[in-house]
Amino acid sequence: MDMPFTFINSAMSADGKISTKERKQVRISGDVDFDRMDDLRATSDAVMVGIGTILADDSSLTVKSEARRSSRKSKGYDENPIRIVIDSKARTPLDADIFIKGEGKRIIAVSGSAPADKVEMLQQKALVIKTGYEQVDLCALMKELSSMGIRRLMVEGGATLNWAMLSSGLVDEVYSFVGNLLIGGTSAPTLVGGVGFVENDILPLKLMSLEKMDEGVLLKWAVINDV
Ligand SMILES: NC(=O)c1ccc[n+]([C@@H]2O[C@H](COP(=O)([O-])OP(=O)(O)OC[C@H]3O[C@@H](n4cnc5c(N)ncnc54)[C@H](O)[C@@H]3O)[C@@H](O)[C@H]2O)c1
Ligand SMILES: Nc1nc(=O)c(N)c(NC[C@H](O)[C@H](O)[C@H](O)COP(=O)(O)O)[nH]1
Fold first, then answer.
1. pLDDT level of residue 129 (50, 70, 90 thresholds)
2. Ligand nearest to the CA of 193
3. Where's the Bacterial bifunctional deaminase-reductase C-terminal domain (predicted)?
4. Closest to 163 (Cα-Cα) out of 83, 57, 50
5. What does the alpha-carbon distance between residue 106 and residue 91 come to, in Å, rounded to a whole number?
6. Of 32, 51, 61, which is best to mutate to test ligand 2, by the most ligand atoms within 8 angstroms of its C-beta?
7. CA-based, 20 to 30 A from 185: which of 15, 20, 35, 179?
8. Residue 83, burial from CB neighbour count under 10 angstroms (0-12, 13-18, 19+)
9. Which domains does the chain have, with CATH numbers?
10. Residue 127: which of 103, 112, 110, 111 has the closest Cα?
């Protein structure tokens, strides 16, 4: 079965950090990049984040431009893409912005280790898809998303989910805005977290484009998965 075309979009400091060591969100990019990100959301079938990002930022993942929402509507889509949270243990708060803000479908992807009572509560607000035992089986989930008609998937981090998706060979392209600031801190999350690749498995990229944007640079990379 064809997997969805999947890309990561992220903003990082000049030293590769995507937030501070306290997981506090930092404004890394400017208005032009935020508008580009909004367009990516509006033209995707679904937007995915990890539970760490929901807990840290309370992201709503909505399309901000009214014109883009109307354009989606006029084509018969919901105003917002399907919003997906990778949440093995069903920790998404019931009052999270992702449930409160904007119309459209939500998917909470949980694993067999999620408490049944919380899963039941989440089912009132979203489609809950269960895969894996201790944590979400991302390959199985992606197949299920594909069978639901999701063809274009935007992944908005954070570091742990980026790692899990990349190391499972599920990402086609990475778009990374590099901003004009340094965040520092060994424990501050970087674009890709997780356990990291070992020398022989390091993932190669092919540079597709680079563009000066706001006060930084937008880099677009294709992931070379088949080496
Ligand atoms: N600058 C940016 O573009 C940007 C974008 C998004 C998030 N962030 C930042 O990233 C930070 C959050 O990143 P993070 O790494 O803590 O959390 P994350 O958002 O990557 O979520 C990670 C969590 O996903 C869950 N998970 C479920 N199944 C999994 C699987 N199969 N593999 C891996 N994880 C799985 C785990 O509970 C894990 O803790 C926040 O500080 C946020 O502000 C920055
Ligand atoms: N492009 C970009 N530039 C930044 O400077 C920055 N800090 C983020 N961060 C992305 C992160 O995923 C946020 O959580 C969502 O941008 C929140 O999304 P909402 O506004 O709640 O829809 N993204």
1. very high
2. 1
3. 4-219
4. 50
5. 15
6. 61
7. 35
8. buried
9. 5-223 (3.40.430.10)
10. 110
Are the beta carbons of 190 and 14 closer than 8 angstroms?
no
Query: 181 with 19: CB under 8 angstroms?
Result: no
Q: From the CB of residue 75, how many other CB atoms can be counted at a distance below 10 Å?
A: 7
Q: Give the predicted TM-score (pTM) of the model.
A: 0.98
Report how far residue 106's alpha carbon sits from residue 84's, in angstroms, rounded to the nearest whole number: 6
Q: Name the 3-class secondary structure at 208.
A: strand
The pair of structure tokens assigned to 92 is 């998404």
Query: pLDDT tens digit string along 166-221?
Result: 999 999 999 999 999 999 999 999 999 999 999 889 999 999 999 999 999 999 99
Atom from ligand 2 closest to the CA of residue 62: 22
Rounded Cα distance between 119 and 108, Å, is 9
Assess whether the C-beta atom of 81 lies below 6 angstroms from ligand 1.
no
